[in-house]
UniProtKB/TrEMBL annotation:
Single Gene Ontology BP annotation: DNA replication, synthesis of primer
Protein name: DNA primase
Keyword terms, alphabetized: DNA replication, DNA-binding, DNA-directed RNA polymerase, Magnesium, Metal-binding, Nucleotidyltransferase, Primosome, Transcription, Transferase, Zinc, Zinc-finger
PANTHER family, per database record: DNA PRIMASE (PTHR30313)
Family: Belongs to the DnaG primase family.
Quaternary context: Monomer. Interacts with DnaB.
Domain notes: Contains an N-terminal zinc-binding domain, a central core domain that contains the primase activity, and a C-terminal DnaB-binding domain.
Source organism: Paracoccus chinensis
One GO MF term attached to the UniProt entry: zinc ion binding
InterPro entries: DNA_primase_core_N_sf, DNA_primase_DnaB-bd, DNA_primase_DnaG, DNA_primase_Znf_CHC2, DnaG_bac, DNAG_N, DnaG_primase, TOPRIM_DnaG_bac
EC number(s) on file: 2.7.7.101
Its job: RNA polymerase that catalyzes the synthesis of short RNA molecules used as primers for DNA polymerase during DNA replication.
Cofactor: Zn(2+)
Pfam families for this protein: DnaB_bind, DNAG_N, Toprim_4, Zn_ribbon_DnaG
């Protein structure tokens, strides 16, 4: 949804920034001058007792003289409360008493239906909570008490109970005027295929409401009270509100906690999250009944660049960690990393906290290992490498894993770290005893084809990347339309990587702002009308953005094909390698063909690039390495 020109300025003029900030801070009234709109308070972004956080209503900005946080009211909502851009705009509009811009009839119909479903879910939350306090919920209360959950915890996580009755919730809702079809659509009831009467989906279970990032209840999870139940935990089905592979339990509160400096910690289940939060680890989330999905990984990275995966210290937890390696490697890069905190054998977070207190879990989280360590452990633990063939098999497994990493700099660092670990594992005895000689030491790698003209830095690609980022910054409403493609952007520059994270998360960081300033200083970028005069230029900006994404993705595909080709070079090239490099050259040339009929709109020299490719093919790639 696009915002009309001047809408944000109108909101800023209507709502003093102190009203927004005042919800999160306690003003120092002795130092503040309320009449002039000059306010001071302890900073909400870093722990302090003095009032170094300044808010100026006249200018509409805040600034901390301690941690240097700064921005306007929208930036504060995003940083302090972890809201997305449009969510922050909606909060500002509500404060100003201004309606959000009108949506299309189709959008309104979808919104109305979702609103009805959310209302049904809210009714169910209240009913489940009442049932926990009833006589039927006695056994559930006893179980929760034994797990250490007091009344405050039950209220905070809105825990309820579903009695073991076939239609208790269904009758309650229909008696209140909710159509049965809506109850079924919300996932609260199911209809047998044989046409029998509908029945409650959750029966005889402790209930955990699942809320999205905006705080709306979208589904429930239920833990069976019967130890012989077919499923210990049961989640609601996929609905218009709920996609279990795209959501995380406790995501909204965790996002707000991460915005205040807490780590994002991913546990296995509801009770693990509750135990972590009660131990002070408020950035805890959990997948919803399945292994972590790619969409959930991307959701985590929108909140924190390096989530900590905290898995139970049993065989199943270790297997889950090893599976996650294969999913994460093709996505890894700057701003998209993982660390793994493996708990002691046989313990989950709740067990560890009960045994050693909050300090025990914090020590485990602080000792979390990077993904590369877990990859090495997976390929080496319990194995004997007493032959050249076994060592070669290890090398191949590690090389195959590293080759899946899309970012070149990250690949190189992985390769270096794994080479160091391999040297430590296979070092000669005298090296292990501290008598390392020059002859024993690992030799630096012989220069390979990385210097080839085929893979030299391409200034044209850097300009395309800059255009993409500038267009998204100038037209934030376009980010949602290209979100999945923007997530796959792979800047080698750390500042640009931070800017990508900011655009996707609707946040603002110092590194991202600096990168954007550098991009906008480029005259090739600044001269584009869709960037220099963004108001009313969305229609022209979108095709330009899509064109730029098409071209950079084609560049990337060609570059990756070239890298794979170079890796296959062993002496003279074979026919398969000839075909691969030819295809790479063809893809690269196609990437530089204008797709909008308007010429070379990003300033690349296709003739020069073609000549460089031909020189590389005829003079470099086929040269036998010595």
């Amino acid at each position: 949804m696009s915002l009309p020109p001047g809408f944000l300025d109108d909101l800023r003029n209507r709502v003093p920034i102190s009203r927004i900030v005042g919800r999160k801070v306690t003003w120092d009234l002795r130092r503040s001058n309320q009449a002039k709109g000059d306010w001071w308070a302890p900073c909400p972004f870093h722990g302090e007792k003095t009032a170094s956080f300044h808010v100026d209503d006249q200018k509409g900005f805040y600034y901390c003289f301690g941690c240097h946080a700064k921005g306007d009211a929208l930036a504060f909502l995003r940083e302090a409360e972890g809201l997305g851009f449009m969510e922050a705009v909606a909060v500002m509009a509500s404060e100003a008493g201004v309606p959000m811009p009108e949506r299309s009839p189709r959008e309104r119909a979808q919104t109305d239906r979702r609103t009805q479903l959310v209302e049904v879910m809210d009714r169910a939350v209240r009913w489940f909570r009442l049932q926990l306090q009833s006589g039927a919920g006695g056994a559930a209360r006893d179980y929760l008490s034994r797990r250490g959950l007091d009344a405050a915890a039950l209220d905070r996580f809105e825990i309820g109970f579903a009695p073991d009755l076939r239609q208790a919730l269904l009758r309650h809702l229909t008696d209140a005027g909710v159509p049965e079809a809506l109850v079924i659509e919300a996932g609260l009831a199911a209809k047998p295929e044989d046409g029998g009467a509908a029945y409650d989906r959750f029966r005889g279970r402790i209930i955990f409401p699942i809320r999205d990032g905006r705080g709306r209840c979208i589904s429930f999870g239920g833990r069976a009270m019967d130890p012989n139940a077919r499923a210990k935990y049961l989640n609601g089905p996929e609905t218009a509100l709920f996609d279990k592979g795209r959501n995380l339990y406790n995501f909204g509160p965790a996002r707000a906690a991460v915005a205040k400096g807490q780590p994002l910690v991913v546990a296995e289940g509801y009770m693990d999250v509750i135990a972590l939060v009660r131990a002070g680890v408020e950035g805890a989330v959990a997948p919803l009944g399945t292994a972590i999905t790619e969409d959930q990984l991307r959701l985590m990275w929108r909140v924190a660049p390096e989530p900590v995966i905290a898995l139970d210290g049993d065989a199943a937890g270790l297997r889950a960690a090893m599976r996650l390696i294969d999913m994460a490697l093709p996505l890894a890069g700057p701003g998209q990393a993982l660390r793994f905190a493996l708990l002691p054998s046989g313990q989950d977070p709740d067990d560890l906290i009960r045994a050693g207190g909050p300090g025990a879990i914090r020590a485990v989280l602080e000792g979390a290992q990077p993904l590369v360590d877990l990859l090495w452990r997976r390929e080496t633990e319990g194995r004997v490498f007493d032959s050249p063939e076994r060592r070669a098999a290890l090398d191949k497994a590690l090389d195959d894993a590293v080759a899946r990493i899309p970012d070149q700099a990250t690949r190189e660092h992985y390769a270096q770290e794994l080479k160091r670990k391999r040297w430590a594992l296979f070092a000669p005895p005298r090296a292990a005893k501290g008598r390392l000689t020059r002859r024993d030491a690992p030799q630096p790698p012989v220069p390979q084809t990385r210097a080839s003209a085929l893979v030299a830095t391409d200034p044209g690609e850097a300009l395309i990347e800059a255009m993409i980022l500038a267009l998204c910054a100038a037209h934030p409403d376009l980010v949602a339309r290209v979100e999945s493609r923007l997530e796959r952007l792979e800047p080698t520059d750390l500042g640009r990587a931070a800017l990508v994270h900011d655009l996707l998360a609707g946040s603002s960081s110092a590194a991202g702002r600096a990168a954007l300033d550098a991009i906008m200083a480029d005259p090739h970028v600044r001269c584009a009308p869709a960037i220099s005069h963004p108001a009313g230029a969305t229609e022209t900006a979108e095709p330009l953005l899509l064109n730029a994404l098409d071209r950079i993705e084609a560049h990337r595909a060609a570059r990756e094909e070239i890298a794979r080709a170079e890796a296959e070079i062993q002496g003279l090239a074979d026919e398969g390698l000839t075909w691969r490099v030819t295809q790479s050259a063809r893809a690269r040339l196609q990437a530089d063909q204008p797709s909008m009929g308007g010429g070379d709109d990003l300033g690349e020299d296709r003739d020069e690039l073609a000549a460089r490719l031909r020189r590389a093919l005829t003079e470099e790639i086929w040269r036998k390495r010595r």
